[in-house]
Amino acid sequence: MGASDPGFGRLLHTWRDRLAPADAGFTPAPGRRAPGLRREELAQLAGLSVDYILRLEQGRARHPSAQVVGALARALQLSRAERDRLFRSAGLLPPRDGTVGAHVPAGVQRLAARLGDVPIGVFSADWTLIRWNPLWAALFGDPALVPATERNLARGLFGLGAARAAVASARSERGNEAFAASIVADLRDAVARYPADSELDGLVQGLCAQSADFARLWATGTAAAPHTSERKTIRHPEVGDIRVDCDVLLVPGLDLRLVAYTAAAGSSDAGKLDLLRVTGGGAALAPVGPQPDAGFDSPGERRG
Locate the HTH cro/C1-type domain: which residues (predicted)? Predict the structure, then answer.
């Protein structure tokens, strides 16, 4: 398809004005006159430069990639119909049905933005991390510093790339083997639901080639309980071990998983989470979602 039409910039500006800063995880300053997000805030959320946002709105940047449009759609909390309209106005085909989706509805994004005292990450059906809040970054390290293609729980467990560090900091009380088997079982279910998804197939084939453990679990096809809720210990370099409950909440109809870590009120573990919330845990505090220079406008970014 061709270059974006002039309506693309108008849509960006209109939807940027529509989104309340608080719903995107920002605290509006007193006397703020902007009705919605500033360009700087949209740039932070989408992982793009402010200058590029300006050029898109003015129609001077005419060929945004599918990765860029997808990041903008998520940052603006668009509905599926609005996302598809943004893709078409950019001269691109919307994401195909029948593949693992990365669309996060506005309500889920607002939830992650407003529950700032709880580490929250939103994962797609193949356990790719799509969204996160600042306390998640403080607990596990800023995902924005990890290449987009590596932000996957299965890659962290079985792969050889940058995702391993964050996963290695967590210990499951039911045992790492059971935890790993549950993630493989989830991927097997995802393949059954999305047989035409070439990226999902590539993930599985790549992990089979890289990891003997993954290949063994995949080949046996042994039934395992899907990954839901459990207790974990997170080893943090600044505050030490934090014992937390990990709960996985499913978003009906969208095949998304919202993962939250909590500790009992008044416990030392809750105190450590509070400390990380204040200090940022050594990671740069940032609004929910992808951050500047995170590579989200590169070919490595996943689906829109």
Answer: 32-83
Q: What is the DSSP string of 74-93?
A: HHTT--HHHHHHHHHHTT-P
Q: Are strands 129-132 and 240-251 parallel, antiparallel or unpaired?
A: unpaired
Domains detected in the chain? 7-89 (1.10.260.40), 106-282 (3.30.450.180)
The tens digit of pLDDT for each residue in 30-46 reads: 777 777 999 999 998 88
* Long-range Cβ pairs for the range 265-271 (8 Å, 24+): 269/242, 269/243, 269/244
Per residue, the 3-state secondary structure of 247-270, as one string, reads EEEEECCCCEEEEEEECCCCCHHH
Residue 170 and residue 207: Cα distance in Å, rounded? 20
Q: What is the pTM of this model?
A: 0.70
Q: Name residue 32's amino acid.
A: R
pLDDT above 90 coverage of the chain, percent: 39
Residue 234 bridge partners (DSSP)? 170, 242
